């Protein structure tokens, strides 16, 4: 937009507000283009948080503060599994089976992203003749 074009817009119009927002947030809006790990939107976070809003009435009476904390931890694990495309039941079954004998200094291995990496490393390598083309 040319510098003098702004003078032709009404100061309180929606387009003026949008243009001012972009100008004021340009550095943050541009940032995602410089880092391939960043997304232009936060749809994943919003979809995940929407589930909390939908289930709020279901969780209204979790029994206690500790019950609410436990539910939040479980929800966090299941949402992470869904995001990583891990079968939640398989993950929880394996982790809850291993947890009593897992050394305390190796508990981080049971976090979903590390658990998934460990499972992938444990798979036997695929021979070239076994691969499907």
Tell me what you see in this structure.
- There is one protein chain.
- The protein folds into 2 domains: 30 residues, no CATH class; 80 residues, no CATH class.
- The protein is an all-alpha fold and 133 residues long.
- 54% of the residues lie in helices and 0% in strands.
- It is elongated and about 70 Å long.
- It has 6 helices and no strands.
- The model has no long low-confidence stretch (mean pLDDT 81).
Question: What would a concise description of this structure say?
Answer:
The chain is an all-alpha fold and about 130 residues long. It folds into two domains: about 10-40, no CATH class; about 45-120, no CATH class.
Strand-helix topology:
Elements: H1 14-24, H2 26-31, H3 43-55, H4 65-84, H5 88-98, H6 112-122
């Amino acid at each position: 937009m040319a510098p003098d074009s702004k003078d032709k817009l009404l100061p309180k119009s929606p387009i003026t507000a949008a243009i001012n927002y972009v100008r004021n947030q340009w550095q943050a809006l541009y940032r995602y283009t410089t880092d391939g790990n960043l997304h232009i939107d936060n749809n994943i976070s919003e979809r995940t948080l929407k589930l909390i809003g939908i289930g709020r009435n279901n969780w209204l009476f979790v029994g206690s503060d500790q019950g609410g904390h436990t539910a939040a931890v479980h929800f966090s694990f299941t949402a992470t599994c869904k995001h990583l495309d891990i079968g939640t039941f398989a993950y929880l079954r394996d982790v809850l089976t291993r947890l009593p004998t897992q050394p305390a200094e190796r508990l981080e291995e049971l976090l979903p992203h590390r658990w998934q990496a460990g499972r992938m490393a444990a798979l036997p390598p695929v021979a070239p003749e076994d691969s499907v083309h």
